[in-house]
Amino acid sequence: VEPGDVLLETTGLRKEFKGFVAVDGVSLKVRRGDIHALIGPNGAGKTTMFNLLTKFLPPSAGTVVFKGQDITGADPAQTARMGIVRSFQISAVFPHMTVLQNVRIALQRELKNSFHFWRPRRSIDVLNDRALALLSDVGLVKFANEQTSSLSYGRKRALEIATTLALDPELMLLDEPTQGMGHEDVGMVIDLIKRVSANRTILMVEHNMNVVSRIADQITVLQRGSILAEGCYGDVSKDPRVVEAYMGT
Ligand code: ADP
């Protein structure tokens, strides 16, 4: 798959909960290399979409194709192995360990799950180097030996993203990455997401329209389980239906 090609495509994706339709025939295309934002009022179906994409929920109808392969019937572990990983769910961080230890644990878990040749002595150095490289990617090298609980809220999020990056996902799903953050932390997380997106694709649920306007290449607006509008920020933010959906809730 080349940059700009479709990496993930859902067709007619639908999820019913006892007759209530939470996701109603969503056909979504996520292009490789994009930061793609999924937005919409509460109850629009964003979380359910994420659960369908990571296979925590089976769809009632429709298909999910990733890198040209139909993964509709895959389970969460298979989906993660194929390269779709959701942050803040798989990798919670341990507060009483150091920042470096947290990333090492995530890497170790990943190594055990894959079929890497495992040589204990050498692997310790390799693991440290790899962990430090990941911390460098998220701007946390300085804090490697700090206890995780002492980090600011924004930096904890950065660490969570680093532990997700340990799985080397091709498509990273971020659930409201700036939620509850102050101005400074929001800026840090924006920079971090931009850096991380240099060599992977990001699909994020985000309520902060300032954040969306600054980093999203593509936006999909959901409302009551269906796509209301799609496009770049300039187009979507001017769409009268989108304005109404946001003003009306
Ligand atoms: P969003 O993340 O956009 O706020 P959700 O995907 O969480 O929306 O929810 C969409 C709709 O589906 C909501 O009306 C919610 O109440 C309903 N819903 C979500 N999960 C379940 C469930 N497990 N059982 C019944 N209804 C659910």
What does this structure look like?
- The protein has 249 residues and is of the alpha/beta class.
- The chain has a domain at 1-74 and 172-177 and 200-249: Rossmann fold (3-Layer(aba) Sandwich), CATH 3.40.50.
- The chain contains 9 helices and 11 strands.
- It has helices spanning 46-53, 76-82, 99-113, 120-137, 153-165, 183-196, 209-215, 233-238, 240-247, and strands at 6-17, 20-26, 29-31, 35-39, 61-66, 69-70, 84-86, 171-175, 201-205, 218-223, 226-231.
- Strands 7-8-9-4-10-11 form a 6-stranded mixed beta sheet, with helices on both faces. Strands 1, 2, 3, 5 and 6 form a 5-stranded antiparallel beta sheet that branches.
- The longest helix is centred in the middle third of the chain and has 18 residues, at 120-137.
- It is globular, with a radius of gyration of 19 Å.
- The mean pLDDT is 89.
- One of its GO terms (molecular function) is ATP binding.
- Keywords: ATP-binding, Cell membrane, Membrane, Nucleotide-binding, Transport.
- Residues 8-249 form the ABC transporter domain.
- This is ABC transporter ATP-binding protein.
Structural class: alpha/beta
Specify the biggest β-sheet: 6 strands, mixed
Strand order of the largest sheet: 7-8-9-4-10-11
The CATH topology of the domain at 1-74 and 172-177 and 200-249 is Rossmann fold
InterPro entries: AAA+_ATPase (IPR003593), ABC_AA/LPS_Transport (IPR051120), ABC_transporter-like_ATP-bd (IPR003439), BCA_ABC_TP_C (IPR032823), P-loop_NTPase (IPR027417)
Keywords: ATP-binding, Cell membrane, Membrane, Nucleotide-binding, Transport
Organism: Variovorax ureilyticus
Domain ABC transporter: 8-249
